[in-house]
Amino acid sequence: MNDGYEPIRSYQRIFRPERRIYQVEGHVLPVPGGVPLRWLAYATAALVAVLALSSGSLVVTVLAGLAASAAGLALGGREEAGLAGIAVVAASWIAGLALGLLDWPLRLVVVPVGVATLATQAAPDGRRADRFAASWLALRLAPRRRSLGRALPAAGVPHPVRAQLWVAREARS
Length: 173
Known about the structure:
- This protein is mostly helical.
- 55% of the residues lie in helices and 7% in strands.
- The relative contact order is 0.09.
């Protein structure tokens, strides 16, 4: 059935090998194939996010909202910045409440491991999960139509033109 040949869909895996940890101080890790460094980065970031969100601090919620507002302002406009800020404040508050209900082993071990595994394994559109999330967010926050750096009204919506037209006779006739 198969002659042993498979088409290579992307040379990215050949030219960008994934760095992995196979042993720590001479002790071999009991994970076949080693642990990817990207998995460790995702797990660390998820643990820091879990600790920050589950603390219930108002400062964390406000800082997350301000960061989302700044990103929305850079990508879209004032409306997008306000929408992004409000959405992130609400989401971080709800996530903090949900994480506060979990017992410490679930909150500090299982959630970061699950997030890291999902982020490492998922490849929507053939891209890494963080790159896909950043481009998806930029697409959602950016206005649909732009001209000269400004957002345009949606197609089909009347836009009043405030201009004056002066008509006069030609001076030579």
